[in-house]
């Protein structure tokens, strides 16, 4: 059994939906499955235009 804390439509029965801590303006919540009944098993992926800048010092 996995917990999905990411936002879902209102009709999906899930007591944990929307309890993630992603910033929805700059990120998208992606659940990580296969870890069992644990909270905090999600990733906050950057939306386009909000990626962390890669700085090449060479």
Automatic annotation (TrEMBL):
**Claim: GTP-binding is one of the keywords in the record:** no
InterPro entries per the UniProt record, alphabetical: GPR158/179, GPR158_179_extracellular
Which stretch is the leader sequence? none
Q: Which GO terms describe its cellular component?
A: plasma membrane
Q: Which keywords has UniProt assigned to this entry?
A: Cell membrane, G-protein coupled receptor, Glycoprotein, Membrane, Receptor, Signal, Transducer
Under the heading Pfam families, the entry gives: GPR158_179_EC
Q: Which residues form the GPR158/179 extracellular domain?
A: 1-50
Localisation: Cell membrane
Q: How does it sit in the membrane?
A: Multi-pass membrane protein
| MF-aspect GO terms | G protein-coupled receptor activity
State the family named in the UniProt similarity comment for this chain.
Belongs to the G-protein coupled receptor 3 family.
Cited PANTHER family: G-PROTEIN COUPLED RECEPTOR 158-RELATED (PTHR32546), MIP05539P (PTHR32546:SF25)
What is the name of this protein?
Answer: GPR158/179 extracellular domain-containing protein
Q: Which organism is it from?
A: Rotaria magnacalcarata
Species lineage: Eukaryota, Metazoa, Spiralia, Gnathifera, Rotifera
